[in-house]
What does this fold into?
Amino acid sequence: MTGTRSRPRPSGGTERDHLPGDGAIWVMVLGDLIIFGSYFVIFMVHRAMAPQEFLAAQQHLNLTIGAVNTLVLLTSSWFVARSVVAARAGDIAAALRLTYFGGACGVVFIAIKGYEWTTKITQGYSLGNSAFDEFFNFYYMLTGVHLFHVLLGLLILGIVVRELRNPQKRRVSMVESGAVYWHMVDLLWVVIFGLLYVMR
It folds into this structure.
């Protein structure tokens, strides 16, 4: 009786039981998730203490801009996921092209966020001590720390591109690691979007 067998991998395991990327990237991702999880809990506690003020401040965020940025990052994740598929299949040209597209979406995200910040600061919504201002304290802190992670993600995607372009350094695990980190960045934004822009 024959059955379906998983394709062997160089490490000696199978594709079915393979954890994408290197172990180090998962330690990094889990650490970031714990830190951001703490930020989210603190935000929720402060929101519960002043729900009306937070809701009033939230009305001054542009939901459309937040939604567009969410769509941009989700699209970038799709490109990066497809680049992993291409790299596993040995189609390096496609993997490179898709990684570039994913990174380009990240740059668009940064540009939109810069526009949004500039608009809010120009309108007078900055750091302060009132409960209304506290919402924007969280807004700038959460989106600012996330933006740093987007920049770091772009750096990691740049390393992926460098390795893909060098036949001597090509490793599917590096492409997978870059994708793991990039997907984490996108996941964090989805939560931030929900907390800051959507939750009522």
